[in-house]
């Protein structure tokens, strides 16, 4: 018996990095897994193959989290194949290392759009089905940079902090339908958006982290799989920090 047997999950930004690891963890726990992505065709195709080899039903969609009609079409497609989506993981995100003084308006907009507006559009796209079945789990992937005062790019911190507020307000709004909304805030991980972190920043993180190391995608994915499961039934509107004690 897996934690997620019989459930259907949609993971945004599943082609690489943390999203990929979450897809693998959810599939291992018995879920049918759909994910979207923006550009990485070979990686997405390879992941679908791997998920199917694990015995999971799996689909991928090249649809941006900012493409509202595309997202609606994707949700209809998933629902036709697998039934209502039970789990949404708003993982798709981007990072950028740039000081505020040099930040272009386009940098700010891209950061807020992909990280925050994307979560809004994806949540809205799946909510009708979740409300109808009076069941659902939404997990938003924030970051330590959004919940703790630390030296991080200002637009990234602002976007990730917005996801915490988004989580709390949405949890209040839709708890009555049996849908929970939670947030997971990882510290620095060994790749992905932290890949461009200047070495001095990474050293500083390691100095402050009680475990003395960065986290892995797999460690965060394990937590995500539990958080979206029925075993996690009373947590709602919460932000779980996974950072080795920084
Ligand atoms: N890595 C870390 O240290 C860390 C720490 C804390 C929080 N996080 C958060 O974890 C999440 C994943 O980060 P990551 O490190 O795994 O990043 P990553 O390796 O760069 O992967 C980002 C994923 O998001 C997808 N994506 C980007 N823009 C998209 C769009 N417009 N529409 C749909 N998908 C899009 C990418 O798709 P393509 O492959 O097609 O580009 C890719 O699958 C982010 O929200 C990030 O802020 C990461």
Tell me what the structure shows.
This protein is of the alpha/beta class and 246 residues long. The chain has a single domain (8-242), classed as NAD(P)-binding Rossmann-like Domain (Rossmann fold), CATH 3.40.50. Helices cover 47% and strands 15% of the residues. Strands 3-2-1-4-5-6-7 form a 7-stranded parallel sheet, sandwiched between helices. Helix 1 (17-28) packs across helix 8. The radius of gyration is 17 Å and the shape is globular. The structure holds NADP nicotinamide-adenine-dinucleotide phosphate (NAP). Residues 12-19, 36-40, 64-66, 91-95, 114, 141, 143, 186, 188-189, 192-194 line the site of NADP nicotinamide-adenine-dinucleotide phosphate.
